[in-house]
Amino acid sequence: MLRFASLLEHEFSKRGHSVRLIQPQPLFGKLGRDSSWVQKWFGYVDKFIIFPLQLRRSKKGFDVVHICDHSNSMYVRHVADLPNVVTCHDMLAIRSALGEIPQNPTSSTGKILQHFILRGLTRSRQIVCVSANTKTELLRITEISDSKISVVPLGLSYPYAPMDRGPALQQLDRYNVVAKKPFFLHVGGRAWYKNRLGVLQIFCRLRSLEPFREHRLVMIGQSFESSLIEFIASHGLNEVVSCISNVPNEDLRAAYSLATGLIFPSLQEGFGWPILEAQSCGCPVFTTNRAPMTEVGGTAATYFDPDHLEEAAQIISSALNEKNLRERSLMNASRFNLHQMIEGYLAAYSTAVGETTSRHPERF
After folding, report:
1. pTM of the entire predicted model
2. Is 39 among the domain residues?
3. Which end of the chain has fewer surrounding CB within 10 Å, N or C?
4. Cβ contacts of residue 118 below 8 Å, gap of 6+?
């Protein structure tokens, strides 16, 4: 979310607007480091007591306040006297707190927090959803008027584009995992909906097919949890599956450019940024047949049911025989750009201010 907020700050400043990005700072949160529980509760002091005071002082003189992450929408009440906009990235945590996602149980304090987040969303003047699917879920769960919600798809936070094979190999040489053998790619963290075990299961089935016996799997994200380590060991994949963390953008661009394809079997997403990043590098995308993956991947991606992984491997194998996969990826990715995203937010700001969309606020 900080990357998204920084992207907006950069793009609006580049267009001559006055922008200030503020966020809670760890003051009390620095205490109690010997205890994660104590540090967590001290962090709440920073977030719910100290930061609102800072926000009340900082908001003076600005025409619009944009809360860039809906999980901070509890701050709406502190800026209710100003035009305000909240970006809603997904409804996953809220739905979990409501009991709609049993595989992701929410603690009692988590349910209270999500209640305040949802109440903040309902009180905001304008809400921008990053996908039509997120808007649909928001409308289903709340009584917010459709007129208060717009959909503005994300643009790239980095200028991903195809990289030639030679420079890409050189870029990734430091990791000693790619070499010159073909590989599939996955990008994502440990969150349950990323379905990293599903990635391994699909890859294991792909390896049983003749065209992919020499393929490797590179997973970019957090280190493997115990269940993934056990799966890799029990299926003899230690030598062909690698995990890389903290990958710079240019290295990620190189990986997208070299990969046979991105395997992205997410069960749910708010948007699915890796799909757009991969396609912007010409990388074929194989992902779940659910929104918003279908929104982002468009007609260029290949879709499968994440509940039928054997079939998913066959679908991927067949799709790779098709022509112009990389060209189709690039064409679909061109639908998303920063200019459209910024224009969408300017329109939301103008609506929040009560002006026509042709008159843009100058300070936000």
Report:
1. 0.90
2. no
3. N
4. 73, 94, 141, 142
